[in-house]
Amino acid sequence: MQKHPVKVYPSKALLPREEQLAWKIAGVAADRVPVQKDVAEMIINRIIDNASVAIAAVNRRPVVSARAMALGHPRKGGATVFGVPAAKRFSPEWAAWANGTAVRELDMHDTFLAADYSHPGDNIPPILAVAQTMERSGRDLLRALATGYEIQIDLVRAICLHEHKVDHIAHLCPSAAAGIGTLLGLKQETIFQAVQQALHVSVSFRQSRKGEISSWKAYAPAHAGKLAVEAVDRAMRGEGAPSPIYEGEDSVVAWVLSGRTQADSKGRNTVYDPVYYEVPLPAPGEPKRAIMDSYTKEHSAEYQSQALIDLAFRMRERVPDTDDIERVVIHTSHHTHYVIGTGANDPQKMDPKASRETLDHSIMYIFAVALQDGRWHHVDSYAPKRAGRADTVRLWHKIETREDPEWTRRYHSRDPDELAFGARIEIFLKDGATITDEMAVANAHPLGAKPFGREDYIRKFRVLTDGLLSAREANRFLEVAQDLPRLAAGELGELNVALPNGALLEGKPGIF
User: Where does the MmgE/PrpD C-terminal domain lie (predicted)?
Assistant: First the structure.
């Protein structure tokens, strides 16, 4: 890997494009390196994973609405939409929108956490939609997805968006554009313009994950995927983009992230300490392996809760009756405390009538239910009746989080053996006894007690799609997905998963 410094330059510097981050990203995308076998196998795992969570969510309201919008844009020879028979095709940007929403709705697919947060599996819907439309092969798709994962994860390693309250899709849209560039074998110049356009149009803010969290949490990455498809289309037609998009005087880094300019009391630009980001990218000819550093979810909830759910299952064996609990303190990382813990100061995270999207970002609720039930279910654990249970509400409101510097350090560690997303939990009982335990990574994590392998992804698919798909359709999809490298040009439509006739709900009417 090579580290590339990124900082703001004045316009008069005329920064050569060869020194711009977007050009270097485009160079990685244009580099036709082979996909290594273990990377290809992991990409197949994540395609299965995405289909699992998408079908499980296929009739939830946000997904129904997104699908209805896509159905308003049919296109002969286009892309497929989850749940709809593969013979029906739609414009790729709208298929990316519908499928991206379905994948993201349950918050249960893969994750990578470092300087920022990400769900790199969000790259799959837009790249696959274009691959189907442009009749690419399974090997083309593998190369493209290796790029999408690589670019998003490398950006997430280096550039923190959340400290500036910017949503993580600002890394996703450029990575999806780069992946599409790889898919189509575009020249570096074209990918360069597409990546810049993608970043320019995808900067949005973290209010989508704050307060009353709405369905936009699922729509946001789908929107980024749609924008990426459109950005590449424009670039292929010869259109340019704002440049340099990362390093320019009025760029994203300058005014949205930790750049160098701000206005003084007279409205003039002044200079303060410039910030250098160092973005790691593969050297020319170096394999794209970033997907191997990411991990999926066993439980349908924010990733920082994965280890805590597993820990709750273990600790409940030592708590005969949760009514005996006086209080619970979760000692954890900065992110867990301030985003899904009591440090967020969101009253909605303690509200039994909160939306599912809010509850899956409340570690207090999640730990209470996991401790009481000893199981986690993507529907039952969030049901309004379950959230409103009196004993759960009592326990839930006894739980607080505290930032622990050591857990924060481990959260940001560059050493994979130290990297952790867990916590130490103290349960104080009314009789004065204290139960303490800790867990660094979830069981399903590559360093966890039961790392996910192919059989676990298949099991997850069967559990989440049970009762929704016919056995024949489920078996057909799993067979095709695992045979991905051998799919010929024009056969990627077989990666779609269709529900039985009449099983899809229809959305409310809109404009499309």
Answer: 299-484
Residue 92 lies in a domain: yes
Q: Is position 422 within any domain?
A: yes
Task: Look at residue 415 in the predicted model and tell me its pLDDT.
Answer: 82
Determine the residue type at 227. L
SS (H, E, C) 363-410: HHHHHHHHHHHCCCCCCHHHCHHHHCCHHHHHHHCCEEEEECHHHHHH
**Number of domains making up the chain:** 2
Burial grade of 426 (CB within 10 A; 0-12, 13-18, 19 or more): middle
**Rounded Cα distance, 356 and 151, in Å:** 31
What pTM value is reported for the model? 0.90
Cβ contact 316:371 at 8 Å: yes
Residue 442 burial class via C-beta count within 10 angstroms: exposed 0-12, middle 13-18, buried 19 and up: buried
Domain end: 419, 439, 459, which one?
A: 439
For 412, the domain range is 303-439
Strands 399-403 and 325-332: parallel
Helix/strand/coil for 330: strand
Strand-pair partners of 262: 270
**CA 56: distance to chain centroid?**
17
Tell whether 49 is covered by a domain.
Answer: yes
- List the CATH number of the domain containing 330: 3.30.1330.120
Q: Of residues 378 and 26, which shows the higher confidence score?
A: 26
Q: Write down the pLDDT at residue 60.
A: 94
CA distances, 388 to each of 289, 352, 383, 384 (Å) = 44, 5, 9, 6
With b meaning 16 or more CB within 10 Å and e meaning fewer, what string describes 88-121? ebbbbbbbbbbbbbbbbbbbbbbbbbbbbbbbbb
pLDDT one-digit tens code per residue, 79-101: 999 999 999 999 999 999 999 99
* pLDDT score for 213: 60
Give the end of a domain, one of 439, 474, 500.
Answer: 439
Name residues whose C-beta falls within 8 Å of residue 433's C-beta, 6 or more positions apart in sequence: none
- Which amino acid does the sequence have at 97? W
User: 1, 117, 114, 107: which is closest to 56 by C-alpha?
Assistant: 107
Angle at 361 between CA 295 and CA 355, to 5 degrees: 130
pLDDT value, residue 256: 84
Position 264 scores a pLDDT of: 53
Residue 362: C-alpha distances to residues 365, 396, 400 (Å): 5, 10, 11
For residue 332, what is the enclosing H or E element?
Answer: strand 325-332
Sorted by sequence, the CB contacts under 8 Å of residue 43 that are 6+ apart come out as: 35, 142, 145, 146, 149, 291, 484
